[in-house]
Amino acid sequence: MQFQRGTVVRSKAGHDKGSFFVVIGTDDDSALIADGKSRTAAQPKRKKLIHLAFTKTVLDEQTMSDDSKISEALETFNRKVKAT
Questions:
Q1: Disulfide: which of 9, 22, 26, 44 matches 32 by Cβ 3.0-4.6 Å?
Q2: Any idea where the domains of the chain sit in the sequence?
Q3: What is the pLDDT of residues 24-64, one digit of tens each?
Q4: Could you tell me the pTM of the whole model?
Q5: CB burial readout 5-39, b (16+ within 10 A) else e
Q6: Closest to 44 (Cα-Cα) out of 21, 61, 28
Q7: Checking DSSP bridges between strand 7-11 and strand 52-58, what pairing results, if any?
Q8: How many angstroms separate the CA atoms of 71 and 73, rounded?
Q9: Which of 12, 16, 14 lies closest to 37 in space, CA to CA?
Q10: Per-residue CA distances from 38 to 2, 17, 59, 77 (Å)
């Protein structure tokens, strides 16, 4: 599967390991990711694709329009991880 705009991903490496993000854009070997809180859509984090695990979830453009909506959508994923 390709990393496309709106794909929900999990960080596999770095200080944010285990956290969920949404892909804002992609380059050849990296993606711009945001979580709506510390990394906003206006200031996304660049992360190599090999350090990301994709999920089957893709957020729609309406959800991607606002940082609070991104944060709210990702909260479900983060809550599931904390519960296990």
A1: 44
A2: 7-83
A3: 999 888 999 999 999 999 999 999 999 999 999 999 999 89
A4: 0.89
A5: ebbbbbbeeeebeebbbbbbebeeebbbbbbbeeb
A6: 21
A7: antiparallel
A8: 6
A9: 16
A10: 25, 14, 19, 16
Q: How many CB atoms lie within 10 A of CB 74?
A: 22
Question: Reading across the β-sheet that carries 7-11, which strands appear in turn?
Answer: 45-48, 30-34, 20-26, 7-11, 52-58
**Overall fold of domain 7-83:** SH3 type barrels. (2.30.30)
Instruction: Report H helices in 1-84.
Output: 61-64, 67-83
| 72 neighbors 33 (Cβ within 8 angstroms) | no
Name the residue with tokens 């945001």.
34
